Amino acid sequence: MKSFSLAIRNPEKSVFFGKVQSLFLRSETGEIGILPDHAPLAATLAPGPIRYQLESGEKIKIEGGDGFLIVKNNRAVILLKP
Fold first, then answer.
1. Which pTM does this prediction carry?
2. What superkingdom heads the lineage (predicted)?
3. Long-range contact pairs involving 9-14 (C-beta distance under 8 Å, separation at least 24)
4. Going by DSSP bridges, is the β-strand pair 4-9/30-34 parallel, antiparallel, or unpaired?
5. Are the CB atoms for 18 and 76 separated by under 8 Å?
6. Which of 3, 6, 30, 61 is most buried when burial is the number of CB atoms within 10 A of its CB?
7. Residue 51: is it exposed, middle or buried by C-beta count within 10 angstroms (0-12/13-18/19+)?
């Protein structure tokens, strides 16, 4: 199964870094789904769950807040505000 790199950071620490199969989260304009080979994207995030599936198939759900998402070259970076 194809995957992409995901990094989730807040100002204090790295929350997650690894390979995932999918990512779903809330932006200011609605729900966003990211899969491998997604087109480049920059978005402002809204509070809500961040859901991602690891390469192993395990599904993870964490609570997200305001922040930013950047997707480029099979890498997604989420920067959460304090």
1. 0.94
2. Bacteria
3. 9/77, 9/78, 9/79, 9/80, 10/79, 10/80, 10/81, 10/82, 11/80, 11/81, 11/82, 12/82
4. unpaired
5. no
6. 6
7. middle
Look up residue 39 and give its DSSP letter: P
For domain 4-80, give its CATH number from 2.60.15.10, 2.170.16.10, 3.30.565.10, 3.40.605.10. Answer: 2.60.15.10
pLDDT digits (tens, 9 = 90+) for 55-77: 999 999 999 999 999 999 999 99
The answer for residues whose C-beta is within 8 angstroms of residue 40's C-beta and 6 or more apart is 71, 72, 73
**From CA 69, how far away is CA 55, in angstroms rounded?**
20
Residue 36 near residue 53, CB atoms below 8 Å: no
